[in-house]
UniProtKB/TrEMBL annotation:
This is DUF2190 domain-containing protein. Residues 1-30 form the signal peptide. The keyword Signal applies. It comes from the Bacteria. Keywords: Signal. The lineage of its organism: Bacteria, Pseudomonadati, Pseudomonadota, Gammaproteobacteria, Pseudomonadales.
Length: 131
């Protein structure tokens, strides 16, 4: 028999605007801090200004242990539009950062901007009960 869980919580969302200039001191940057127990359930990289590298421009979204945990494969940020993240069900064992890694080939990009949106819940958290 299934034991019902009457605990409920709202979906938490975090977002940050990231411009090409954010990578001027390195291709790997901490973007959003998540609490211990966080489970990413959705999100996207909304490219508002294409990263205009000559050949390719990509972004990986992950964490300290797996640099593409939430993107699966590198996201193409050379064109404007929404690039969905790939939730994995991973539970953050302790507070940690969502890491973004930018890469390009050919002549370097001169512009690019995106809005990174992370949707998550927290394991064992209850804000109210239902039932």
């Amino acid at each position: 028999m299934i034991q019902k869980n009457y605990n409920r919580q709202g979906l938490a969302m975090a977002h940050i605007a990231i411009a090409l200039s954010a990578f001027s001191d390195g291709a790997v940057q901490a973007a959003i801090e998540l609490p211990a127990g966080a489970i990413v359930v959705g999100g996207s990289a909304l490219v508002t200004t294409a990263f205009d590298a000559e050949t390719t421009a990509t972004l990986k979204v992950g964490d300290a242990d797996d640099d593409d945990r939430y993107s699966g494969t590198p996201l193409d940020v050379s064109a404007a539009g929404s690039k969905p993240l790939v939730p994995t069900g991973y539970v953050m064992p302790e507070k940690g950062d969502v890491i973004v890694t930018y890469a390009s080939t050919g002549a370097a990009a001169t512009e690019g901007e995106l809005l990174l949106v992370i949707e998550y819940i927290e394991a064992n958290k209850s804000e109210w009960t239902q039932g």
